[in-house]
Amino acid sequence: MPTRPPETRAQYRHFLPIPTRWMDNDVYGHVNNVVYYSYFDTVINQYLIAEGGLDVAAGEVIGLCVESHCAYARPVAFPDVIDAGLRVAHLGTSSVRYEIGIFAQGHDEASASGWFVHVFVDRGTRKATPVPARMRAALERIKA
Amino acid sequence: MPTRPPETRAQYRHFLPIPTRWMDNDVYGHVNNVVYYSYFDTVINQYLIAEGGLDVAAGEVIGLCVESHCAYARPVAFPDVIDAGLRVAHLGTSSVRYEIGIFAQGHDEASASGWFVHVFVDRGTRKATPVPARMRAALERIKA
Amino acid sequence: MPTRPPETRAQYRHFLPIPTRWMDNDVYGHVNNVVYYSYFDTVINQYLIAEGGLDVAAGEVIGLCVESHCAYARPVAFPDVIDAGLRVAHLGTSSVRYEIGIFAQGHDEASASGWFVHVFVDRGTRKATPVPARMRAALERIKA
Amino acid sequence: MPTRPPETRAQYRHFLPIPTRWMDNDVYGHVNNVVYYSYFDTVINQYLIAEGGLDVAAGEVIGLCVESHCAYARPVAFPDVIDAGLRVAHLGTSSVRYEIGIFAQGHDEASASGWFVHVFVDRGTRKATPVPARMRAALERIKA
Question: What is the dihedral of CA B23, B26, B30, B34, to 10 degrees?
């Protein structure tokens, strides 16, 4: 259970609005815990494609998730549109730790926040490989 | 396999932009066939909530899906944003047949099109019940 | 709304048990209409991999969905385990029409039934291509 | 990135086999990171319903997820069947911390492992409430 003060919008460097979907809600009437992680990898990969040159279909280097975490502070529900905030907390030779905040529109405190670690690998061998230069530059731009 | 001419935007009466998500793509690199149906029930329920007074948490009358169909003409893929077009093809006493088109942005011909039939029921008994007046008025407004 | 008599288990030629998941249920307490289609492509692809030699990662020929349909007769809900029944209704040069029944365990009448059309294509060009011999033989074995 | 020795089957107290689904795989050919969390809440809620008396539709006390985490060691892919292992690491007055291991069949070392914290609340007020006696007994039985 989180004891840190809640995350706020000013702590993030890139935002993507994500509309919830009918199926995101579970039987208790709110977005299911699992679905937040799909918001995480959507904001991350959208940023990598738009800014970092990630080529999902054919690029030599791809990012694989090795760890993820989420703390849930207050619920969101369909048909809310949420804003996913993104920052880079650590950028290593071949890995990056992202931190993500999920914000209800009109609210400055996060509904949920978490982290996500990518290791970049060669698509064929799946061995760790240095973050390509263009992607590294994009990730540097959103370092906290 | 569809033999009708492709659906175009002018044939729909209400539109909702829906960004694709990373997870929507399957192993073949395009949005999985299943996910189109989540676009269908998202545009439908968003319209019912915003325009028809559907109260998902507490309303006495809810819509249950009894039939759905989709024909796929050309693929879409993350990170595309699609526009879901909606019209009402038939409005009965307690049921409604929606038709839906999925459009890639900048394209006038549908990437996929389908239908979806709701029967409105009493939340408690799950027996068919007439479409409430406010919802009927909202559905009349988007009849084809 | 379906007017045919309900499908029964004897009308299907291959079965796969599929446990429901917590997330399959929507806010109304039953498996969401969308999720049935994931049961459809799971039973189909499981059969193609196990019996027809489908190589998802590297095969030259892959199946793409061009049409799907489902009629819903009675709900299922987590934690039910359903049986997905499969048969081939039509086998053409490069396409196949599957029919699928979703059965609650202990019930002989389908909770839902539908169809799904695959066109087989070359992985690279995505042009229609004849169904490979081993796959054709597997599909012939479950023809209705 | 995990530095602990990998989790093994002997460290878990309850197991549920979960077949993967076609849609679980993402564009890189393995089960998407998000989907592991749906295995988590499936094994947890299946246990609570079967052993702890959880009544999803009408019970006065429900469990809400406040934190979750997963570390990914090696991939799984459709059509694998995985075994989800479950244990209780901490049982408080109104909360429980579960630990989960995801095992490929025939392997003793976990493909992924994580944790998940439930707070039990009153369904109406959503205020924290003591874990009901029958559920507490069920949770005690799988304490590590």
Answer: -80
CA C136 to chain centre: 16
Mutate to test the interface with A, among D26, D30, D37 (most CBs of A within 10 A): D37
End-to-end CA distance of chain A: 24
For residue D60, being part of any structural domain is answered with yes
Q: Residue B1 pLDDT > 50, yes or no?
A: no
Residues of chain B contacting C34 with CB distance shorter than 8 Å: 34-35, 37-38, 40-41
**What is the DSSP annotation of B89-102?**
EEE-SSEEEEEEEE
pLDDT of B2 > 80? The answer is no
Identify the domain containing residue A109 by its residue range: 9-141
Q: Which of the residues D18, D20, D21 would you substitute to probe the C interface, choosing the one with the greatest number of C C-beta atoms within 10 Å?
A: D21
Of D22, D27, D35, the CB nearest to B25: D27
Which helix (DSSP H) or strand (DSSP E) does residue D91 occupy? Answer: strand D81-91
Per residue in C19-29, pLDDT (tens digit) is 999 999 999 99
pLDDT computed for residue A1 by the predictor:
47
Percent of the residues in chain B that have a pLDDT greater than 70, as a whole number: 98
Average pLDDT, chain B: 95
Asked if residue B3 is part of any domain, the answer here is no
Q: Please give the Cα distance from D137 to B52 (Å, whole number).
A: 46
In chain C, the percentage of residues whose pLDDT exceeds 70 is 98
CB atoms D69 and A68 under 8 Å: yes
Token pair of C81, please? 């385990």
| Pairwise CA distance, residues D121 & D123, whole Å | 6
In which element (H, E) is residue D121 found?
strand D112-122
β pairing state of B81-91 and C14-19: unpaired
Q: Is residue C4 part of a domain?
A: no
D-chain residues near C45 (CB < 8 A): 22, 78-79
Q: How far is CA A34 from CA A69, C24, C124, in A?
A: 11, 12, 34
Confidence of residue B26 (pLDDT cuts 50, 70, 90): very high
D71·A67 Cβ contact <8 A: yes
Please give the torsion angle defined by the CA atoms of residues B133, B136, B140 and C1, in that order, rounded to the nearest 10 degrees.
Answer: -150
Contacts of A57 in chain D (CB under 8 A): 27
Residue B68 domain-assigned?
A: yes
Which pLDDT does position C5 carry in this prediction?
A: 79
What CATH number does the domain containing A28 carry? 3.10.129.10
Q: What is the pLDDT of residue C1?
A: 47
pLDDT in tens, C102-116: 999 999 999 999 999
**What's CA A116's distance to the chain center, in Å?**
7
Q: Does D25 touch chain B (CB under 8 A)?
A: yes
- What is the total count of domains within chain A? 1
Pairing type for strands C112-122 and C61-72 reads antiparallel
Residue whose pair of structure tokens reads 């290791």 in the numeric block: A119
Identify the band that residue B104 occupies on the pLDDT scale cut at 50, 70 and 90.
very high
In whole angstroms, give the CA distance from residue D87 to residue B75. 43
pLDDT surpasses 70 at C137: yes
Write the pLDDT tens digit of every residue in C27-74.
999 999 999 999 999 999 999 999 999 999 889 999 999 999 999 999
